[in-house]
Every structure is written in structure tokens, then in C-alpha cells.
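user: can you give me the structure for this one chain? C-alpha cells are fine.
assistant: on it. calling the predictor now.
[tool input]
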Amino acid sequence: MDLFEAIERRASVRGFEPCNLDREELEKICDAGRRAPSGYNRQPWEFIVIEDRDTLQKLGKIQDPIAEASAAIAVVADEEASKFWKEDAAAAIENMLLAIVDLGYASVWVEGYTLRYEDFGKEVLGIPEDLRLLTLLPIGKAAEEPIQAEKKPLEEIVHWEKYG
């Protein structure tokens, strides 16, 4: 699959069927995140790969799809490492979401719920107090064919030379 096809196919999936992701695939996804740009190349992220069913079930308290996923990746960030830690982590997350699609799997960016239950997630995953749990990416085979949410037409959002 080429990059533009992955971008067109990436959709937020909240229902998963069981599947086996191998370590090499999970490492490829993390490597895609690692290769994202970051302000001053600070790379303020770390990733936790979760495959344990009991842990995924516990994290399902944050959002149900996590409990259904075959694996998940937690994105942990050090807000002291860079004033751009959120933007940097977002770039890593998007790279991982595209890698997930490219490998034939699906995911959803669980951010709002993760932040709401951040303390709980940090406790379950043993994340140090001084780091942030920004998001969880559940990964698996989509239970239904993923359909990307409708996007605004290009002509509504692209301006040439100046705004308007």
C-alpha cells in the first residue's frame, strides 16, 4: 500500500475481531512513531506495547475498544523534555496510525478518554508520575469495513497565495 492509500483508508475503528499481531509488526508500528519529527529533535515520547489480555481488559475502563483489541500502544510523553511535547507526540501517533493501516490493521486515537483517566492508566501501566499518558492506540482487525469519516472538500480548506 502506498502512503496516499493509507491516508485515504485510515479510519477511527472502535470494534475489533481477535487477531495475532507479531512482535515484528508491533515494532514496525513503534518504529514509525520513533521516526516522526519533533521540535529540536527532542523526541519526548516513549511507547508501551500492551498484549496481555488482562491489562487490555483493565484499560477497557478508559474506552471499550481497548478491551476488544489484540494489542495496544500507549504513548507516554515527557512534557519537561520539550515545550512542543504534545505536537511532537501527535506526529508520532499519526505515523503509527498510518503504519497500522499499512500493515492491514485498524485503530482509533483514544485521547480525550485517556486524559480523563490518565491517573488510572498510569497506575495500570506503571508509568512514572512525572510523565504523561497522552493516548492509547488499540490495534486489531476491524470488526466491520473501516470507513473514513467525511472530510471537508479540498476547495473549502485550501487557499492559494493568501487567505480567501
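assistant: here you go. The mean pLDDT is 96. The beta strands are 16-17, 45-50, 71-77, 106-107, 132-142.
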